Amino acid sequence: MELYLEALGAELAALREPAPVETIFIGGGTPTYLDPSRLQRLLAEVTRWLPLRANGEFSIESTPDSIDENKVAILAAAGVNRVSIGAQSFHPHLLRVLERRHEPAQVSKAVDAVRQVGAQVSLDLIFGVPGQTLAEWDADLRQALRLAPDHMSTYGLTYEKGTRLWKQWKRGDVRPLEEDDELALYTHAMDTLETAGFEHYEISNFARPGCRSRHNQVYWANLPHHGFGVGAARYINGRRELNTRDLKEYMRRVLSGESAAFQSEELDPEERARETIAIQIRRSDGIDRHGFRVQTGFDLDTLAGAALANHAALGFVADDGAGVRLTRRGRCVADALIRDLL
Amino acid sequence: MTQTNLIRNFSIIAHIDHGKSTLADQFLLKTGAISQRDFRAQVLDGMDLERERGITIRMHPVTVYHEHAGQRYELNLIDTPGHVDFNYEVSRSLAACEGVILLVDAFQGVQAQTVANAFLAMEHNLTIVPVLNKIDLPIARPDAVIAEMEQALAIEPTGVLRASGKAGIGIEEVLAAIIERVPPPQGKADEPLRALVYNSHFDTYKGVVVYVRVMEGTLKKGERIKLMRGATEHEVSDVGQFRPAMTNCDELGPGQVGFFMAQLKNIQDVHIGDTVTDALHPATTALPGYKVPKAMVYSGLYPINNRDFEALREALAKLRLNDSSFTFLPENSEGLGFGFRCGFLGLLHREIIQQRLERDSELELVQTAPNTTYEILTRKGEILNIDSPQKVPDAGQIEEFREPIVRISFLLPSENIGDLMGLCSERFGVFIRTEYLSPTRAMLVYEMPLAEVIYDLYDKLKSVTHGYGTMDYEVLAYRPADLVRLDVLVAGKRVDALSTIVHRAQADRRGRSLVKKLRNEIDRHLFEVVLQAAIGSRIIARESIAPLKKNVTAKCYGGDISRKRKLWAKQAAGKKRMKQVGQVEIPQEAFLAVLESDEP
Predict the structure, then answer these.
(1) What is the pLDDT of residue B597?
(2) Does the global pTM surpass 0.90?
(3) CB-CB neighbors (< 8 A) of A182 in chain B
(4) What proportion of chain A, given as a percentage, has pLDDT over 70?
(5) Of the ranges A75-79, B27-31, B34-38, B56-60, which one carries the lowest mean pLDDT score?
(6) Which class does domain B4-181 fall in?
(7) Which of A24, B32, B530, B537 is the most exposed place for a label (fewest CB within 10 A)?
(8) More confident of the two residues B206 and A227
(9) Inter-chain touch A233–B561, beta carbons under 8 Å
(10) Average pLDDT, stretch A160-178?
(11) How far is B588 from chain A (nearest CA, A)?
(12) Taking a C-beta distance cutoff of 8 angstroms, is the pair B505, B446 a contact?
């Protein structure tokens, strides 16, 4: 771990001089599992090379069992002002299926600790877990709402190739929910959270007014961003790069002065514009025609006008002339719509 | 030039997989035409496709020399295809021979194509040398199979030779029997030249290579010849034999088999069955020649991308260069756009053409379900030839709807006779006769519509006989039947490429099973897709495909974007490979669902 922090420092140092940023997000894994001193070192390395501008957003990902008052104090001292907590569920049997090791009770403690230092709280929940009922999901949502988070992410369970769950599914040991049931869980989240005053601003994300994740909105606008660490992605000057996901390889490369990137691609302008459609359409703000032209140089309707009109006629897309956005029904089948738009 | 008394011309006829090519290879090896080192199993099946499928389609001739009783004999082996689709080609090669080896698998025994091919040889008055192959197999049952041959084909048991192509057993004896039993050719060198054109192929460098069997006279290099059918004259630039590689010589005398070239650029200029004669001293009459084979099975071939239409035309024209039995004409389908109506000798022929197309061109194609040809007598007294369901006129205009009827012979274990008779009667078969070859094997003869044969009969036969049944058929005539066009509507729109012609009595059942199969082939859409089967305006079956309800990626952050975009792009490309009919995307498989059997 020491070596990893050293490597990360080296990768950051390749910037040569500090690059002030609007937002920082430390995540993709659980940085708060680091012991206090290493966590402190991580934060120091990051803020040294990526100083946060005034009123910037500094988020970190965590789990209920990896933060306490002590660590929260360290985070706050480094300038972290938004903590995302992977609650996932408040039902022990569902947490077991998901292989999460925390207890439901740890969630409220974690939330209290974060609140103490005045940082914003985001809670992650997962739905569509094998065996999950609508009543259980409703209870999860209500329990999360009682903790009064500023932001919530609800993720439909994905069977990622290579995970244990994926193998169990392939072997037939677990059965994914029926499509109708999964749909019911998703629409129930939309109903419940919107009623509670949240804005559904991206497929899987809800925020109280003014509390949207600024960092993630950069991804969803398809705008440039840095990325450091093992498996990190960056999008700079029209080029997408992905660092190696192999920890040893990452350390070897960075510490010997090589680039950690193992995948790199530069799309041509039209492909980039089409990618922007695919990403932006997932936002509640959708795609603004004028903004799209300014950002990509392409006319939205030239690229996807026919498909959008067709989707609008079927009630999946709303078009107010200035821009297009998914309707509630459209959000449920976004991937199928995106295939048509590409 | 070899004296005619030292020439023997023969073919090997056999049911598929009875070991014809392996035996032919042994002849090459034993006579020294190829060395052991160059020996590649089944040299004669040159084309990859043929090798893969273990069937011989083209006729590859080969000339070998063999010492027998102190004399050096020239043996010309003219290979024949072993599948029912290519019966016509068998007939072509037999016309160039005086004898045949009738090869029968010592375990499998007499099969449908053994009988069909043996009868063809008898019709051509050829000497039959019967040979049992695979005699070394532990499961071989030579005595029983010899009894079957006697019963089915009146073969004299004492004349049957025993061999194994694979183990090289009995090859000398077979070569000796060819020399002793097959009569030498009869023609004389001083008569006017008559040579039978029995095949040809197009070579990119050499032009058309014409395969001939000289009947009388001599074909020489430099000679001015006339192709009697079109009365066109050409100068012979090369003459040669297949040994097995093309080997030039100065001339081919009477009875000899080989090739010539004469700067012919277009394979269409050379008619199979034509007679080659000397332009200066022409023969007075041509040889009998052949009937032109008639395509009996048609299907539509469409490029997925309409821009590929011309490229498809070129690819088809190229295939036709070496296969004149395959035909194609442009057609237009409402659902599929511009494509071609292609005619084939049979289903295997169709499959082979499709595979060659896919292999040789990069084109992505949709193929419609095959149908047979039909005849319609209209109220006005005209006769229409129907090669596509789309061409069937309104019911009001039809006086009589006729379909091709075949005589079909099955050879099968006697215990499966009952099941097969059931199958045949469901398929409008009319029983002709049963014949027992042995207590355990029987031949069953039926007349039935060709459409029923191509629908699923072969698969059904294999399944009721556990693989031991075989069949062979020949087209008899067109006969009137109560036929209707069964249409399919996808989202209310008729898809002409999914129409079929069926017997009215089975229309309901076929219609129901067809829309059910289509429901499984077509992906869910963003809306409900209704599938209907109809006869005229009457709907006889309906199915619906429920709309997609949830299909959304949960996480799409910085590190996911690249991967997701690639995934979406791949799926979008997959959609583009489908045919769009109205708002509905139909995959290629759906167009073939029409053909599949009703039961799984």
Answers:
(1) 55
(2) no
(3) 550
(4) 100
(5) B56-60
(6) alpha beta
(7) B537
(8) A227
(9) yes
(10) 89
(11) 19
(12) no
Residues with Cβ within 8 Å of residue B569, at least 6 apart in sequence = A342
User: Would you state the pLDDT for residue B57?
Assistant: 45
User: Measured between beta carbons, which residues in chain B are less than 8 angstroms from residue A240?
Assistant: 561-562
Mean pLDDT of chain A: 95
Residue A69: pLDDT band (50, 70, 90) is very high
Burial of B346 (0-12, 13-18, 19+ CB in 10 A): buried
Residue type present at position B497: A
- Residue B165 to residue B24: CA distance in whole angstroms: 8
Cβ separation B550–A278 shorter than 8 A: no
Tell me if chain B has a CB within 8 Å of the CB of A183. yes
Confidence of residue B363 (pLDDT cuts 50, 70, 90): confident
Residue numbers of A between 210 and 269 with CB closer than 8 Å to B: 216, 219-220, 222, 225, 227, 231-235, 240, 242, 263, 265
Q: Does residue A2 sit at the B interface (CB-CB below 8 Å)?
A: no
Q: Do B18 and B115 form a contact (C-beta atoms < 8 A)?
A: no
Q: Chain B partners of A186 at a C-beta cutoff of 8 Å? A: 550
3-class secondary structure, B446: strand
Which of A171-185, B114-128, B217-231, B581-595 shows the lowest mean pLDDT across its residues? B581-595
Find the Cα–Cα–Cα–Cα dihedral B45, B47, B48, B51, rounded to 10°: -20
Q: Does the pLDDT of residue B43 top 60, yes or no?
A: no
Residue A64, chain B, CB below 8 Å: the answer is no
Any B CB within 8 A of A273 CB: no
Pick the CATH number of B484-593 from 3.30.70.2570, 1.10.260.40, 3.30.70.980, 3.40.50.150: 3.30.70.2570
Q: Domain B194-278, CATH 2.40.30.10 — does that match?
A: yes
Provide CATH code, domain B297-369: 3.30.70.870
Say yes or no for a CB contact (<8 Å) between A336 and B554. no
Do the first three CATH levels of B194-278 and B297-369 match, i.e. the same topology? no
With CB atoms and an 8 Å threshold, state whether B559 touches A28: yes
Chain A contacts of B546, Cβ < 8 Å? Answer: none
Is A284 part of the contact surface with chain B (CB cutoff 8 Å)? Answer: no
pLDDT of residue A4: 93
CB contact (8 A) between residue B559 and residue A333: no
Nearest to A333 among B548, B555, B561 (CB): B548
Residues in chain B: 600
User: Quick one: pLDDT band at residue B51, thresholds 50, 70, 90?
Assistant: very low
The ipTM of this complex is 0.88
Which residues of chain B neighbour A155 with C-beta distances below 8 Å?
Answer: 554-555
Burial class (CB in 10 A: 0-12, 13-18, 19+), A126: buried
CATH of B375-480, picked from 3.40.50.150, 3.30.70.240, 1.20.1440.170, 3.40.140.10, is 3.30.70.240
A322 contacts A290 by C-beta, under 8 angstroms: yes
The domain locations on chain B are: 4-181, 194-278, 297-369, 375-480, 484-593
Six-digit token string for B320: 């036709």
